[in-house]
Amino acid sequence: MLGLMQDWPLLLHRIIDHAAIQHGTREVVSRAVEDGALRRRSYVEIRSRALKVAKRLQREGIALGDRIATLAWNTDRHLELWYGISGIGAITHTVNPRLFPEQIAWIVGHAEDRLLFLDLTFVPMIEAIQDKLPSIERYVVLTDAAHMPQTGLRNAVAYEDWLAESDDDFAWGRFDENTAAGLCYTSGTTGGPKGVLYSHRSNVLHALACAAPDYMGLSARDTVMPVVPLFHANSWSLAYSAPMTGAKLVMPGARLDGPSLHQLLEEEGVTMTAAVPTVWLGLLQHLEATNGKLSTLKRVVIGGSACPRAMTETFERKFGVTVAHAWGMTEMSPLGSFCSLKPVYEGLSGDALYDLKVKQGHPPFTVEFRLTDDAGTDLPWDGRTFGRLKVRGPAVAGGYYRRGDDILDDRGFFDTGDVATIDPAGYMQVTDRSKDVIKSGGEWISSIDLENLAVGHPDVAEAAVIGVAHPKWDERPLLVIVPKPGRTPGKDEILAFMTGKIAKWWLPDDVVLVEAIPHTATGKIQKTKLREMFRDYRLPG
Ligand code: ADP
After folding, report:
1. Annotated catalytic residue within 313, 381, 444, 484
2. 3-class secondary structure, 88
3. Which of 196, 211, 226 delimits the end of a domain?
Protein backbone atom coordinates (compact mmCIF):
# COMPACT_ATOMS: atom_id res chain seq x y z
CA MET A 1 0.00 0.00 0.00
CA LEU A 2 1.35 3.43 -0.87
CA GLY A 3 1.12 6.42 1.43
CA LEU A 4 -1.34 9.14 0.68
CA MET A 5 0.92 12.17 0.89
CA GLN A 6 1.25 14.82 -1.79
CA ASP A 7 3.41 14.34 -4.82
CA TRP A 8 6.06 17.04 -4.26
CA PRO A 9 9.22 16.10 -6.13
CA LEU A 10 12.50 17.18 -4.53
CA LEU A 11 13.51 19.79 -7.14
CA LEU A 12 16.30 22.28 -6.59
CA HIS A 13 14.40 25.40 -7.67
CA ARG A 14 12.04 24.86 -4.73
CA ILE A 15 15.00 25.90 -2.57
CA ILE A 16 15.37 29.32 -4.17
CA ASP A 17 11.56 29.72 -4.19
CA HIS A 18 11.53 29.06 -0.44
CA ALA A 19 14.42 31.48 0.14
CA ALA A 20 12.62 34.22 -1.81
CA ILE A 21 9.27 33.68 -0.07
CA GLN A 22 10.49 33.16 3.51
CA HIS A 23 13.82 34.97 3.60
CA GLY A 24 13.34 37.35 0.69
CA THR A 25 15.30 40.28 2.05
CA ARG A 26 18.33 38.24 3.14
CA GLU A 27 21.36 39.27 1.15
CA VAL A 28 23.74 37.58 -1.23
CA VAL A 29 26.84 39.78 -1.14
CA SER A 30 29.44 39.18 -3.87
CA ARG A 31 32.85 40.53 -4.63
CA ALA A 32 32.69 41.55 -8.29
CA VAL A 33 35.29 39.90 -10.50
CA GLU A 34 35.58 43.12 -12.54
CA ASP A 35 36.90 45.43 -9.82
CA GLY A 36 36.57 43.74 -6.44
CA ALA A 37 33.68 46.01 -5.37
CA LEU A 38 30.84 44.47 -3.35
CA ARG A 39 27.48 43.84 -5.03
CA ARG A 40 24.35 43.23 -2.95
CA ARG A 41 21.28 41.31 -4.00
CA SER A 42 18.42 39.75 -2.08
CA TYR A 43 17.09 36.21 -2.43
CA VAL A 44 14.04 37.74 -4.18
CA GLU A 45 16.37 39.24 -6.80
CA ILE A 46 18.43 36.08 -7.15
CA ARG A 47 15.27 34.06 -7.79
CA SER A 48 13.98 36.60 -10.28
CA ARG A 49 17.28 36.58 -12.17
CA ALA A 50 17.42 32.76 -12.06
CA LEU A 51 13.97 32.68 -13.71
CA LYS A 52 15.28 35.08 -16.38
CA VAL A 53 18.22 32.74 -16.96
CA ALA A 54 15.86 29.78 -17.36
CA LYS A 55 13.63 31.63 -19.84
CA ARG A 56 16.63 32.93 -21.79
CA LEU A 57 18.18 29.45 -21.96
CA GLN A 58 15.00 28.06 -23.39
CA ARG A 59 15.06 30.76 -26.09
CA GLU A 60 18.61 29.67 -26.83
CA GLY A 61 17.22 26.20 -27.56
CA ILE A 62 18.50 24.58 -24.36
CA ALA A 63 16.33 21.70 -23.20
CA LEU A 64 16.03 18.95 -20.62
CA GLY A 65 19.30 17.03 -20.24
CA ASP A 66 21.54 19.54 -22.08
CA ARG A 67 24.87 20.26 -20.41
CA ILE A 68 25.85 23.88 -19.72
CA ALA A 69 29.38 24.60 -18.53
CA THR A 70 30.41 27.25 -16.02
CA LEU A 71 33.98 28.37 -15.44
CA ALA A 72 33.37 30.79 -12.65
CA TRP A 73 34.19 32.01 -9.15
CA ASN A 74 31.71 32.10 -6.29
CA THR A 75 29.45 35.06 -7.11
CA ASP A 76 25.74 35.91 -7.23
CA ARG A 77 25.80 35.41 -11.01
CA HIS A 78 27.17 31.89 -10.69
CA LEU A 79 24.52 31.13 -8.06
CA GLU A 80 21.57 32.38 -10.13
CA LEU A 81 22.92 30.46 -13.13
CA TRP A 82 22.88 27.22 -11.14
CA TYR A 83 19.23 27.62 -10.23
CA GLY A 84 18.31 28.86 -13.70
CA ILE A 85 20.01 25.99 -15.54
CA SER A 86 18.67 23.18 -13.39
CA GLY A 87 15.28 24.92 -13.25
CA ILE A 88 14.54 23.78 -16.82
CA GLY A 89 16.05 20.33 -16.31
CA ALA A 90 19.37 21.19 -17.96
CA ILE A 91 22.61 20.26 -16.22
CA THR A 92 25.15 22.64 -14.68
CA HIS A 93 28.62 21.36 -15.45
CA THR A 94 30.94 23.21 -13.07
CA VAL A 95 34.41 23.18 -14.60
CA ASN A 96 37.40 23.66 -12.31
CA PRO A 97 39.47 26.51 -13.81
CA ARG A 98 42.56 25.30 -11.98
CA LEU A 99 42.79 22.27 -14.26
CA PHE A 100 45.23 22.33 -17.16
CA PRO A 101 43.69 23.76 -20.36
CA GLU A 102 44.00 20.33 -22.04
CA GLN A 103 42.04 18.71 -19.19
CA ILE A 104 39.36 21.40 -19.50
CA ALA A 105 39.08 20.72 -23.23
CA TRP A 106 38.84 16.99 -22.53
CA ILE A 107 36.02 17.23 -20.00
CA VAL A 108 34.02 19.86 -21.94
CA GLY A 109 34.26 17.54 -24.95
CA HIS A 110 33.33 14.49 -22.89
CA ALA A 111 30.32 16.29 -21.42
CA GLU A 112 29.41 17.80 -24.83
CA ASP A 113 28.59 21.10 -23.18
CA ARG A 114 26.56 23.45 -25.41
CA LEU A 115 27.15 26.82 -23.74
CA LEU A 116 30.02 28.05 -21.61
CA PHE A 117 29.53 30.80 -19.03
CA LEU A 118 32.88 32.20 -17.95
CA ASP A 119 34.30 34.87 -15.70
CA LEU A 120 36.52 37.59 -17.20
CA THR A 121 39.54 35.94 -15.55
CA PHE A 122 39.29 32.93 -17.85
CA VAL A 123 38.69 34.59 -21.22
CA PRO A 124 42.36 34.44 -22.36
CA MET A 125 42.72 30.78 -21.32
CA ILE A 126 39.58 29.76 -23.23
CA GLU A 127 40.47 31.85 -26.29
CA ALA A 128 43.70 29.83 -26.48
CA ILE A 129 41.87 26.47 -26.57
CA GLN A 130 38.71 27.50 -28.38
CA ASP A 131 39.41 25.21 -31.37
CA LYS A 132 39.48 22.27 -29.00
CA LEU A 133 35.94 23.03 -27.77
CA PRO A 134 33.77 22.22 -30.80
CA SER A 135 30.62 21.46 -28.78
CA ILE A 136 30.35 25.03 -27.41
CA GLU A 137 27.85 27.02 -29.48
CA ARG A 138 28.17 30.23 -27.54
CA TYR A 139 30.30 31.85 -24.85
CA VAL A 140 28.63 34.08 -22.30
CA VAL A 141 31.08 36.28 -20.38
CA LEU A 142 29.90 36.94 -16.81
CA THR A 143 30.06 40.72 -16.97
CA ASP A 144 28.24 43.76 -18.37
CA ALA A 145 28.69 45.68 -21.62
CA ALA A 146 31.00 48.23 -19.98
CA HIS A 147 33.51 45.55 -18.97
CA MET A 148 33.12 43.23 -21.96
CA PRO A 149 36.52 42.63 -23.57
CA GLN A 150 37.24 42.41 -27.29
CA THR A 151 37.18 38.67 -27.88
CA GLY A 152 37.22 36.17 -30.68
CA LEU A 153 35.16 33.66 -28.70
CA ARG A 154 32.33 32.22 -30.80
CA ASN A 155 29.05 34.19 -30.51
CA ALA A 156 30.39 35.86 -27.39
CA VAL A 157 28.00 38.05 -25.44
CA ALA A 158 28.13 39.88 -22.13
CA TYR A 159 25.96 38.08 -19.56
CA GLU A 160 24.01 41.18 -18.53
CA ASP A 161 23.12 41.89 -22.19
CA TRP A 162 22.13 38.27 -22.72
CA LEU A 163 19.97 38.36 -19.59
CA ALA A 164 18.39 41.71 -20.45
CA GLU A 165 16.66 40.01 -23.39
CA SER A 166 14.63 37.98 -20.90
CA ASP A 167 12.16 38.52 -18.05
CA ASP A 168 11.07 36.54 -15.02
CA ASP A 169 7.57 35.74 -16.22
CA PHE A 170 8.36 32.07 -16.36
CA ALA A 171 7.35 28.83 -14.66
CA TRP A 172 10.04 26.36 -13.62
CA GLY A 173 10.16 23.08 -15.52
CA ARG A 174 8.22 20.05 -14.28
CA PHE A 175 10.10 16.80 -14.27
CA ASP A 176 11.03 13.81 -12.17
CA GLU A 177 13.16 14.42 -9.07
CA ASN A 178 15.71 11.91 -10.33
CA THR A 179 16.49 14.19 -13.29
CA ALA A 180 20.19 15.10 -13.55
CA ALA A 181 21.02 18.59 -12.25
CA GLY A 182 24.79 18.90 -11.95
CA LEU A 183 27.95 17.39 -13.35
CA CYS A 184 31.36 17.54 -11.71
CA TYR A 185 34.53 15.72 -12.79
CA THR A 186 36.99 14.35 -10.26
CA SER A 187 40.63 14.82 -11.02
CA GLY A 188 41.10 11.07 -11.51
CA THR A 189 44.77 10.25 -11.15
CA THR A 190 44.35 7.07 -13.20
CA GLY A 191 42.58 7.18 -16.59
CA GLY A 192 40.71 10.30 -17.65
CA PRO A 193 38.70 12.48 -15.26
CA LYS A 194 35.45 10.86 -14.14
CA GLY A 195 32.10 12.67 -14.25
CA VAL A 196 29.81 12.51 -11.22
CA LEU A 197 26.22 13.27 -12.24
CA TYR A 198 24.09 14.63 -9.38
CA SER A 199 20.29 14.60 -9.48
CA HIS A 200 17.78 17.09 -8.07
CA ARG A 201 16.79 14.52 -5.47
CA SER A 202 20.36 13.71 -4.42
CA ASN A 203 21.28 17.39 -4.08
CA VAL A 204 18.15 18.26 -2.10
CA LEU A 205 18.63 15.33 0.29
CA HIS A 206 22.31 16.17 0.64
CA ALA A 207 21.56 19.83 1.41
CA LEU A 208 19.01 18.81 4.06
CA ALA A 209 21.48 16.40 5.65
CA CYS A 210 24.27 19.01 5.59
CA ALA A 211 22.22 21.81 7.12
CA ALA A 212 21.47 19.82 10.31
CA PRO A 213 22.99 21.04 13.63
CA ASP A 214 25.76 18.46 13.98
CA TYR A 215 26.99 19.07 10.41
CA MET A 216 27.06 22.49 8.70
CA GLY A 217 24.59 23.55 11.40
CA LEU A 218 22.97 26.41 9.47
CA SER A 219 20.23 28.76 10.56
CA ALA A 220 18.48 31.86 9.24
CA ARG A 221 20.61 33.89 11.66
CA ASP A 222 23.88 32.76 10.08
CA THR A 223 26.01 34.63 7.60
CA VAL A 224 27.80 32.03 5.51
CA MET A 225 30.86 32.55 3.34
CA PRO A 226 31.55 29.58 1.05
CA VAL A 227 35.21 30.00 0.14
CA VAL A 228 35.14 26.46 -1.17
CA PRO A 229 34.24 26.99 -4.82
CA LEU A 230 30.97 26.04 -6.44
CA PHE A 231 33.13 24.00 -8.84
CA HIS A 232 34.60 21.98 -5.96
CA ALA A 233 31.80 19.46 -5.38
CA ASN A 234 28.82 21.80 -4.98
CA SER A 235 30.64 24.17 -2.61
CA TRP A 236 30.05 21.43 -0.05
CA SER A 237 26.27 21.99 -0.37
CA LEU A 238 26.38 25.64 0.77
CA ALA A 239 24.88 27.04 -2.45
CA TYR A 240 21.82 24.96 -1.59
CA SER A 241 21.80 24.64 2.19
CA ALA A 242 22.31 28.38 2.86
CA PRO A 243 19.28 29.57 0.83
CA MET A 244 17.35 26.57 2.17
CA THR A 245 17.80 27.85 5.72
CA GLY A 246 17.69 31.57 4.92
CA ALA A 247 21.31 32.25 5.86
CA LYS A 248 22.90 35.35 4.32
CA LEU A 249 25.54 34.43 1.73
CA VAL A 250 28.89 36.14 1.20
CA MET A 251 30.55 35.17 -2.08
CA PRO A 252 34.28 36.01 -2.24
CA GLY A 253 34.63 36.08 -6.06
CA ALA A 254 38.17 35.80 -7.40
CA ARG A 255 40.03 37.06 -4.32
CA LEU A 256 40.83 34.21 -1.95
CA ASP A 257 43.97 35.70 -0.35
CA GLY A 258 44.18 36.25 3.41
CA PRO A 259 43.61 40.05 3.46
CA SER A 260 40.59 39.92 1.10
CA LEU A 261 38.94 37.08 3.02
CA HIS A 262 39.60 38.78 6.33
CA GLN A 263 37.99 41.98 5.11
CA LEU A 264 34.81 40.11 4.11
CA LEU A 265 34.71 38.08 7.32
CA GLU A 266 34.83 41.24 9.43
CA GLU A 267 32.83 43.70 7.34
CA GLU A 268 29.98 41.34 6.48
CA GLY A 269 29.74 39.76 9.93
CA VAL A 270 30.37 36.22 8.71
CA THR A 271 29.47 33.57 11.32
CA MET A 272 30.35 30.42 9.38
CA THR A 273 32.77 29.68 6.58
CA ALA A 274 34.29 26.66 4.82
CA ALA A 275 37.37 25.83 2.74
CA VAL A 276 40.39 23.55 2.32
CA PRO A 277 43.36 23.91 4.73
CA THR A 278 45.61 25.81 2.27
CA VAL A 279 43.11 28.70 2.16
CA TRP A 280 43.14 28.96 5.96
CA LEU A 281 46.91 28.88 5.97
CA GLY A 282 46.80 32.16 4.00
CA LEU A 283 44.28 33.71 6.36
CA LEU A 284 46.14 32.68 9.52
CA GLN A 285 49.44 34.02 8.17
CA HIS A 286 47.74 37.33 7.44
CA LEU A 287 46.21 37.47 10.93
CA GLU A 288 49.57 36.70 12.48
CA ALA A 289 51.34 39.40 10.46
CA THR A 290 48.72 42.08 11.19
CA ASN A 291 47.65 41.03 14.68
CA GLY A 292 44.15 40.69 13.22
CA LYS A 293 40.98 39.50 14.97
CA LEU A 294 37.99 37.39 14.01
CA SER A 295 35.22 39.21 15.80
CA THR A 296 32.06 37.61 14.36
CA LEU A 297 33.19 34.23 13.07
CA LYS A 298 31.90 31.30 15.15
CA ARG A 299 32.62 28.22 13.05
CA VAL A 300 35.02 27.23 10.31
CA VAL A 301 34.57 24.00 8.37
CA ILE A 302 37.86 22.54 7.14
CA GLY A 303 38.07 19.58 4.80
CA GLY A 304 39.13 18.38 1.36
CA SER A 305 42.38 17.23 2.91
CA ALA A 306 43.31 16.50 6.50
CA CYS A 307 43.03 19.51 8.80
CA PRO A 308 46.30 19.76 10.76
CA ARG A 309 45.88 19.72 14.51
CA ALA A 310 47.94 22.91 14.81
CA MET A 311 45.43 24.74 12.60
CA THR A 312 42.50 23.60 14.74
CA GLU A 313 44.30 24.71 17.89
CA THR A 314 45.15 28.14 16.45
CA PHE A 315 41.57 28.82 15.37
CA GLU A 316 40.09 27.62 18.65
CA ARG A 317 42.60 28.79 21.26
CA LYS A 318 43.77 32.03 19.68
CA PHE A 319 40.65 33.23 17.90
CA GLY A 320 37.81 31.46 19.75
CA VAL A 321 36.48 30.00 16.48
CA THR A 322 35.22 26.39 16.57
CA VAL A 323 36.75 24.14 13.92
CA ALA A 324 34.68 21.40 12.35
CA HIS A 325 36.79 18.89 10.48
CA ALA A 326 34.89 17.45 7.52
CA TRP A 327 35.60 14.70 5.04
CA GLY A 328 34.03 13.86 1.74
CA MET A 329 34.54 13.47 -1.94
CA THR A 330 33.07 14.56 -5.26
CA GLU A 331 31.38 11.15 -5.54
CA MET A 332 29.54 11.85 -2.25
CA SER A 333 28.07 15.26 -3.23
CA PRO A 334 30.48 15.64 -1.22
CA LEU A 335 29.84 15.44 2.54
CA GLY A 336 30.78 12.07 4.08
CA SER A 337 31.50 12.91 7.70
CA PHE A 338 31.80 15.73 10.19
CA CYS A 339 33.68 15.85 13.47
CA SER A 340 31.08 17.24 15.87
CA LEU A 341 30.70 16.04 19.44
CA LYS A 342 28.39 13.17 20.31
CA PRO A 343 27.47 12.90 24.01
CA VAL A 344 30.23 10.30 24.64
CA TYR A 345 32.84 12.93 23.83
CA GLU A 346 31.06 16.03 25.05
CA GLY A 347 33.16 16.54 28.18
CA LEU A 348 36.50 16.46 26.37
CA SER A 349 38.83 19.41 26.70
CA GLY A 350 42.47 20.34 26.08
CA ASP A 351 44.65 17.77 24.34
CA ALA A 352 42.01 15.04 24.45
CA LEU A 353 39.62 17.28 22.52
CA TYR A 354 42.23 18.12 19.87
CA ASP A 355 43.11 14.41 19.58
CA LEU A 356 39.49 13.78 18.71
CA LYS A 357 39.30 16.71 16.31
CA VAL A 358 41.99 15.31 14.02
CA LYS A 359 39.46 12.58 13.20
CA GLN A 360 37.22 13.11 10.19
CA GLY A 361 34.15 12.32 12.28
CA HIS A 362 30.80 10.65 11.83
CA PRO A 363 28.45 10.50 8.85
CA PRO A 364 25.08 12.27 8.66
CA PHE A 365 21.87 10.34 8.01
CA THR A 366 21.94 9.37 4.30
CA VAL A 367 25.57 8.16 4.50
CA GLU A 368 26.44 4.60 5.59
CA PHE A 369 29.99 3.43 6.29
CA ARG A 370 31.61 0.05 5.82
CA LEU A 371 35.21 -0.92 6.65
CA THR A 372 36.69 -3.96 4.91
CA ASP A 373 39.99 -5.66 4.11
CA ASP A 374 41.15 -6.12 0.52
CA ALA A 375 39.08 -9.31 0.20
CA GLY A 376 35.89 -7.46 1.19
CA THR A 377 35.57 -8.94 4.70
CA ASP A 378 34.16 -6.53 7.30
CA LEU A 379 36.65 -5.21 9.88
CA PRO A 380 35.91 -4.20 13.50
CA TRP A 381 35.09 -0.61 14.49
CA ASP A 382 37.67 -0.47 17.27
CA GLY A 383 39.49 2.74 16.35
CA ARG A 384 42.68 0.78 15.59
CA THR A 385 42.08 -1.63 12.73
CA PHE A 386 42.42 0.12 9.42
CA GLY A 387 40.91 -0.94 6.16
CA ARG A 388 39.17 0.26 3.03
CA LEU A 389 36.44 2.78 3.72
CA LYS A 390 33.30 2.15 1.69
CA VAL A 391 30.13 4.24 1.55
CA ARG A 392 26.50 3.99 0.50
CA GLY A 393 23.62 6.45 0.30
CA PRO A 394 21.18 8.41 -1.87
CA ALA A 395 23.76 11.15 -2.58
CA VAL A 396 26.64 8.76 -3.35
CA ALA A 397 27.58 8.03 -6.97
CA GLY A 398 26.30 4.72 -8.38
CA GLY A 399 28.31 5.07 -11.60
CA TYR A 400 30.22 7.63 -13.65
CA TYR A 401 28.89 9.66 -16.55
CA ARG A 402 29.31 7.83 -19.86
CA ARG A 403 31.39 5.02 -18.39
CA GLY A 404 30.00 1.57 -18.11
CA ASP A 405 32.15 0.28 -15.26
CA ASP A 406 30.50 -1.13 -12.16
CA ILE A 407 31.80 0.87 -9.22
CA LEU A 408 29.85 -0.75 -6.37
CA ASP A 409 30.69 -3.84 -4.32
CA ASP A 410 28.42 -6.84 -3.75
CA ARG A 411 26.43 -4.92 -1.12
CA GLY A 412 26.13 -1.72 -3.13
CA PHE A 413 28.94 0.19 -1.40
CA PHE A 414 31.38 2.49 -3.19
CA ASP A 415 35.08 2.15 -2.33
CA THR A 416 36.35 5.64 -1.44
CA GLY A 417 40.01 4.76 -2.02
CA ASP A 418 40.73 5.97 1.52
CA VAL A 419 42.26 3.83 4.23
CA ALA A 420 40.65 4.53 7.60
CA THR A 421 39.77 3.40 11.10
CA ILE A 422 36.36 3.72 12.74
CA ASP A 423 36.06 3.89 16.53
CA PRO A 424 33.28 2.30 18.62
CA ALA A 425 31.43 5.64 18.69
CA GLY A 426 31.33 5.67 14.88
CA TYR A 427 34.07 8.29 14.33
CA MET A 428 36.13 7.68 11.23
CA GLN A 429 39.77 8.69 10.84
CA VAL A 430 41.52 8.68 7.48
CA THR A 431 45.00 7.12 7.63
CA ASP A 432 45.81 7.87 4.03
CA ARG A 433 44.67 7.75 0.47
CA SER A 434 45.34 4.03 -0.29
CA LYS A 435 47.92 5.00 -2.92
CA ASP A 436 49.78 7.36 -0.55
CA VAL A 437 50.18 5.06 2.43
CA ILE A 438 53.85 4.28 3.13
CA LYS A 439 54.65 0.58 3.28
CA SER A 440 57.69 -0.01 5.45
CA GLY A 441 58.80 -3.55 6.26
CA GLY A 442 55.30 -4.92 5.65
CA GLU A 443 53.71 -2.38 8.01
CA TRP A 444 51.90 0.84 7.15
CA ILE A 445 52.89 4.35 8.12
CA SER A 446 50.28 7.10 7.91
CA SER A 447 51.60 10.09 5.99
CA ILE A 448 48.70 12.20 7.33
CA ASP A 449 49.75 11.56 10.96
CA LEU A 450 53.34 12.57 10.23
CA GLU A 451 52.30 15.72 8.35
CA ASN A 452 49.99 16.65 11.17
CA LEU A 453 52.76 16.38 13.68
CA ALA A 454 55.33 18.25 11.58
CA VAL A 455 53.11 21.32 11.06
CA GLY A 456 52.85 21.56 14.83
CA HIS A 457 56.46 22.80 14.85
CA PRO A 458 56.44 26.61 15.18
CA ASP A 459 58.72 27.12 12.13
CA VAL A 460 56.76 24.92 9.74
CA ALA A 461 54.09 26.35 7.42
CA GLU A 462 53.26 23.22 5.44
CA ALA A 463 54.44 19.61 5.42
CA ALA A 464 54.11 16.59 3.16
CA VAL A 465 55.34 13.05 3.64
CA ILE A 466 56.01 10.58 0.84
CA GLY A 467 57.49 7.10 0.75
CA VAL A 468 60.83 6.76 -1.02
CA ALA A 469 62.40 3.47 -2.07
CA HIS A 470 64.56 1.77 0.52
CA PRO A 471 66.65 -1.37 -0.13
CA LYS A 472 65.76 -3.05 3.16
CA TRP A 473 62.33 -1.68 4.16
CA ASP A 474 60.78 -1.20 0.66
CA GLU A 475 59.82 2.36 1.52
CA ARG A 476 60.73 4.87 4.18
CA PRO A 477 59.11 8.24 4.91
CA LEU A 478 60.66 11.47 3.61
CA LEU A 479 59.40 14.69 5.18
CA VAL A 480 59.16 17.70 2.86
CA ILE A 481 58.68 21.04 4.57
CA VAL A 482 57.81 24.61 3.60
CA PRO A 483 59.20 26.76 6.43
CA LYS A 484 57.39 29.87 7.67
CA PRO A 485 58.74 33.10 6.14
CA GLY A 486 62.24 33.90 7.43
CA ARG A 487 62.73 30.57 9.27
CA THR A 488 65.10 27.70 8.47
CA PRO A 489 64.46 24.87 10.93
CA GLY A 490 67.16 22.16 10.91
CA LYS A 491 66.50 18.48 10.28
CA ASP A 492 67.58 17.40 13.77
CA GLU A 493 65.41 20.04 15.38
CA ILE A 494 62.32 18.84 13.46
CA LEU A 495 62.98 15.18 14.18
CA ALA A 496 63.62 15.91 17.86
CA PHE A 497 60.26 17.72 17.96
CA MET A 498 58.52 14.65 16.51
CA THR A 499 60.34 12.09 18.67
CA GLY A 500 58.26 10.55 21.42
CA LYS A 501 54.97 11.59 19.77
CA ILE A 502 54.88 8.64 17.34
CA ALA A 503 56.25 5.09 17.14
CA LYS A 504 60.02 5.29 16.71
CA TRP A 505 60.04 3.44 13.40
CA TRP A 506 57.59 5.99 11.95
CA LEU A 507 60.14 8.78 12.28
CA PRO A 508 61.04 10.15 8.80
CA ASP A 509 64.48 9.11 7.52
CA ASP A 510 65.14 12.59 6.20
CA VAL A 511 63.77 16.14 6.13
CA VAL A 512 64.05 18.50 3.15
CA LEU A 513 63.10 22.17 3.02
CA VAL A 514 61.40 23.45 -0.14
CA GLU A 515 59.93 26.79 -1.18
CA ALA A 516 56.54 25.36 -2.14
CA ILE A 517 54.68 22.07 -2.18
CA PRO A 518 52.64 21.34 -5.34
CA HIS A 519 48.85 21.31 -4.99
CA THR A 520 46.07 19.77 -7.09
CA ALA A 521 43.22 21.75 -8.63
CA THR A 522 41.19 21.16 -5.47
CA GLY A 523 43.94 22.29 -3.09
CA LYS A 524 45.33 18.92 -2.03
CA ILE A 525 49.01 18.15 -1.72
CA GLN A 526 49.92 16.62 -5.06
CA LYS A 527 51.68 13.47 -3.88
CA THR A 528 52.19 12.09 -7.39
CA LYS A 529 54.09 15.21 -8.42
CA LEU A 530 56.06 15.21 -5.18
CA ARG A 531 57.02 11.56 -5.67
CA GLU A 532 58.17 12.46 -9.19
CA MET A 533 60.25 15.36 -7.84
CA PHE A 534 61.98 13.04 -5.39
CA ARG A 535 62.16 9.97 -7.64
CA ASP A 536 65.95 9.89 -7.67
CA TYR A 537 66.27 10.96 -4.08
CA ARG A 538 68.62 8.81 -1.98
CA LEU A 539 68.00 8.62 1.73
CA PRO A 540 71.04 9.25 3.93
CA GLY A 541 72.97 6.13 4.94
P1 ADP B 1 39.74 15.34 -6.22
O2 ADP B 1 40.61 14.12 -6.28
O3 ADP B 1 39.09 15.75 -7.49
O4 ADP B 1 40.34 16.47 -5.43
P5 ADP B 1 37.80 15.05 -4.15
O6 ADP B 1 37.81 16.49 -3.79
O7 ADP B 1 36.53 14.37 -4.29
O8 ADP B 1 38.52 14.80 -5.47
O9 ADP B 1 38.75 14.30 -3.14
C10 ADP B 1 38.28 13.36 -2.21
C11 ADP B 1 39.40 12.85 -1.35
O12 ADP B 1 40.00 13.90 -0.61
C13 ADP B 1 38.98 11.87 -0.29
O14 ADP B 1 38.79 10.59 -0.80
C15 ADP B 1 40.13 11.96 0.70
O16 ADP B 1 41.23 11.19 0.29
C17 ADP B 1 40.52 13.41 0.62
N18 ADP B 1 39.92 14.13 1.75
C19 ADP B 1 38.83 14.91 1.75
N20 ADP B 1 38.62 15.43 2.97
C21 ADP B 1 39.60 14.97 3.78
C22 ADP B 1 39.92 15.12 5.17
N23 ADP B 1 39.21 15.89 5.97
N24 ADP B 1 41.00 14.46 5.63
C25 ADP B 1 41.75 13.68 4.83
N26 ADP B 1 41.49 13.49 3.53
C27 ADP B 1 40.44 14.13 3.01
Report:
1. 444
2. coil
3. 211
